[in-house]
Design a protein that fits this description.
Chain lengths: 562, 131, 109
């Protein structure tokens, strides 16, 4: 099977499309893995973070690598496809060179090629979740469009996080009536009696090897997203229960391998591997890290496959006497310019888009510079969202959540309605305006900072810091909880703990902590679309409003060195 | 027989320190942290009003008289005590308690020889919301 | 016996000599006396379960002393060694003197 018919661009860049896939097969088992696709059915630009700050004890470790530190750690050369896919460096230039990333039809080609090479009985395809949410078509079809794509891709098993923001009834409906994959979770239980809502694990025979796969949904779903979507269900990490299922699979079900399919986050899974014995492999997700090499914690191998449909993880195994004898892993970049789309899935994607095409393709403005999402404290696209909200509500302070999903628009590129949804497509999009004292505001910021910068991965929720407009502050990451933020200024003046501030926010639980909620609250995507239409040429400042006191760069290496 | 174990005179919750609440239960003895007490509570509470707490004591039921649950920084740190008998088979107790803010939860096992052993676990209560 | 109370014995089937898990829930607001009523602005007076007794046949097998900081609709779970066919009765008492009882049969197979 040929991937492409001699793509001119590929030759220009001296990339052999077959090289993208070149892989030395091992043993009889191929485990394919995706995570955090965030409903990106079509290719997109997605720039990795330019700042990824963590507690000093975690700096430079997998899960907290970006930019140059990432390239040095994994041996990636500048100006290559890998550099383009895995880092922010020279992004607009490399985007012009290599084109868009991901896309279901392109991934399908790669998957089909691997299946043709190995045989269907030797391949298992797993999805770590955050798959059903993140674009307009996903939102408009309440997740159904993405389920259709998962079925076409041949996903066998999945777990979830943002999936739950469609509400538990919708999740159950899609899982029971539409999704061909098995939806597993050992850490979702009914609140009253602690009985499991989903099957905790499934057993699959792959290439003659009996594999037990246990599911972990995002443990902090009811905290990170509004509780009402999962009312009556309880989550949590549940390491003790997990250990019980690992033992059950090994001792009673006599499986050859135990796998955890997780949406815990890369860092949390590394901590979990130290707490639970007997897991051979963890397929992680949630924190969106592209990790080209597995890491090993005790006897557990851990992999994570980036985000936004940019990569397909392939792990080949030779298993003998319940032990992994040999393995080979590759994070395959779905470089859409160099892969021929699968016609069947390409048609499915275009059918999905058809009813919304006119609305979503509307050009509403032009990016005067790179509009991106990922950074620990600040991003240009988030700045645009904050400005749009401030123009609408006239609030003194605007909050935008530090989600790790979104999109990237290149300098000079048209901004479409679809782009705006790619940044904001959630089931609770309303912008709330409320009053809060300076004291409470500081408390909340410290709380969010502690979720992001706690040195214990069990206490990290895996998001970036909330973005603020109207507020500037300094932060000492290494300071104790509650004492990280200093010198907080609101519109140029020192934060007054006693004063009440008018704040607008979306996408979180923040407004519940405030007072005097204004009765009007419109969806954020409408507000942003109108703002971009009004202003046309979009040129937000690139300077962050946050000064980090204990790091001199955004992507520090181990030891905090830049 | 079990009734006589009750240390509590059914007064309404009272503001007091963790040390005072603990002293009332242990009658002044100092509990020792022990691997025998397995305390399971979430690292981050989903809801401070409903925090699941599970305790197992790795010892025979004959050796364990009671399990006490305390929440360090609550208005009244003492939360609940269960008095066990050999009819319980194995020393185990699970319940759900309220936590006013981030704090340590304690499980204190009262042993038949009059000693106390314990485990603690920090539980974070947060507004959350980064996704 | 005004309040709704529920008892579950797990697993559903067990034999003589087994140790089973008894899960119980009683619908009760568990007012601490520390919270103001949002409408009236007045303190809601304390109203909470403060004592639970568990009888297996005639024998008092377990008892609990309970403070108001236990969550609303209190959940208590403990073990029971099945050594006879007999009713299991849980009695919940609150600080206003209200008493609720619930009985399940322990029937080993
Ligand atoms: Mn995600
Ligand atoms: Mn996630």
């Amino acid at each position: 099977i040929s991937l492409t018919g001699g793509n001119a661009l590929a030759q220009l860049n001296r990339i052999d499309p077959e090289d993208l896939l070149s892989f030395k097969p091992v043993g009889n088992v191929t485990l394919l893995h995706i995570c955090d696709m965030h409903a990106h059915l079509k290719p997109l630009y997605w720039r990795e973070p330019s700042t990824l700050i963590s507690h000093p004890s975690l700096v430079g470790k997998p899960g907290f690598l970006c930019g140059k530190a990432y390239m040095d750690y994994y041996g990636v050369k500048p100006d290559t496809l890998r550099a383009y896919f895995d880092t922010y460096i020279d992004f607009p230039e490399l985007a012009a060179k290599f084109g868009k990333m991901g896309g279901a039809a392109y991934m399908a080609t790669v998957v089909k090629q691997i299946i043709a090479e190995r045989g269907r009985d030797k391949v298992l395809f797993m999805d770590s979740g955050d798959t059903w949410q993140g674009t307009a078509v996903a939102l408009f079809t309440k997740g159904k469009a993405v389920v259709d794509i998962q079925n076409a891709l041949g996903i066998d098993v999945m777990v979830g996080h943002w999936e739950f923001t469609y509400g538990k009834d919708r999740v159950l409906e899609l899982v029971e009536n539409h999704l061909k994959a098995e939806f597993i979770a050992q850490n979702i239980a009914d609140e009253m009696w602690e009985e499991l809502v989903f099957q905790p694990y499934t057993i699959k025979e792959v290439g003659g090897v009996k594999i037990g796969i246990i599911g972990n949904a995002f443990p902090y779903t009811p905290i990170a997203n509004p509780k009402q979507f999962t009312e009556g269900w309880t989550f949590g990490i549940q390491p003790e229960r997990l250990q019980g299922f690992v033992d059950e699979l090994r001792n009673d079900k006599k499986v050859d391998l135990v796998v955890l399919l997780s949406h815990d986050g890369f860092s949390l899974d590394q901590a979990l591997a130290k707490m639970v014995n007997g897991i051979d492999i963890i397929f992680s997700g949630h924190t969106h890290d592209p990790a080209p090499k597995p890491i090993f914690v005790n006897n557990t191998m851990i992999v994570i496959a980036g985000s936004h449909g940019k990569y397909l993880g392939r792990l080949d195994l030779e298993v003998k006497n319940k032990k992994i004898k040999r393995w080979n892993y590759k994070l395959i970049p779905i470089a859409s310019n160099f892969i021929k789309p699968d016609p069947e899935v390409e048609k499915l994607v275009s059918d999905i888009y058809k009813p919304y095409e006119k609305k979503l393709n509307e050009k509403i403005g032009v990016a005067q510079q790179l509009l991106y999402k990922r950074d620990t404290f600040y991003s240009t696209f988030d700045r645009v969202i904050c400005e749009a909200i401030r123009e609408e509500t006239d609030a003194e302070i605007v909050f935008t959540p530090g989600y790790r999903w979104g999109t990237t628009v290149l300098p000079g590129e048209d901004i479409t309605v679809d782009h705006v949804y790619e940044m904001t497509a959630i089931t609770y999009p309303d912008v709330y305006t409320f009053e809060m004292t300076g004291e409470k505001l500081k408390l909340i910021l410290e709380d969010v900072a502690d979720n992001a910068f706690n040195k214990n991965p069990l206490y990290q929720q895996g998001g970036d810091m909330s973005r603020l407009l109207g507020v500037e502050y300094e932060i000492k990451i290494d300071a104790p909880a509650g004492k990280r933020l200093r010198n907080i200024k609101v519109n140029g003046k020192d934060l007054d703990p006693k004063r009440s501030y008018v704040i607008s926010a979306w996408g979180g639980n923040l407004y519940r902590a405030g007072k005097n909620v204004r009765p009007d609250h419109r969806p954020v995507y409408d507000i942003v679309i109108e703002y971009i239409k009004r202003h046309k040429n979009i040129n937000p400042p690139t300077e962050s409003n946050v000064k980090v006191l204990d790091f001199r760069c955004g992507c520090p290496k181990e030891g905090g060195i830049c | 027989v079990v009734f006589s174990d009750s240390h509590r005179a059914y007064a309404d919750p009272k503001k007091r320190s963790f040390e005072d609440a603990l002293k009332e239960i242990t009658k002044g003895k100092t509990p020792v942290e022990s691997e025998k007490v397995k305390l399971i509570a979430p690292s981050i509470a989903e809801n401070g009003a409903v925090v699941p707490v599970k305790v197992e004591v790795k010892d025979s039921i004959e050796n364990v008289k009671a399990i006490h649950i305390l929440a360090e920084k609550n208005f009244d740190p003492w939360s609940v005590s269960i008095h066990l008998t050999p009819a319980n088979g194995k020393p185990y107790f699970a319940t759900r308690i309220r936590l006013a803010k981030t704090m340590n939860v304690y499980a204190v096992a009262e042993m038949s020889d009059g000693s106390f052993i314990m485990a603690k676990k920090p539980v974070k209560v947060t507004i959350g919301g980064c996704g | 016996m005004g309040r709704t109370a529920l008892i579950k014995v797990k697993p559903r089937r067990y034999k003589m000599g087994d140790i089973v898990r008894v899960d119980s829930v009683i619908m009760h607001p568990m007012h601490t006396g520390l919270v103001k009523d949002k409408k009236t602005g007045k303190i809601i007076p304390p109203h909470y379960i403060n004592r639970v007794e568990v009888y297996y046949g005639d024998e008092l097998v377990t008892s609990l002393d309970v403070n108001a900081s236990v969550s609303a609709n209190p959940y208590f779970s403990f073990n029971l060694k099945v050594d006879k066919k007999a009713p299991l009765k849980i009695i919940w008492k609150d600080n206003k003197g209200e008493v609720t009882e619930k009985v399940v049969k322990i029937k080993p197979h």
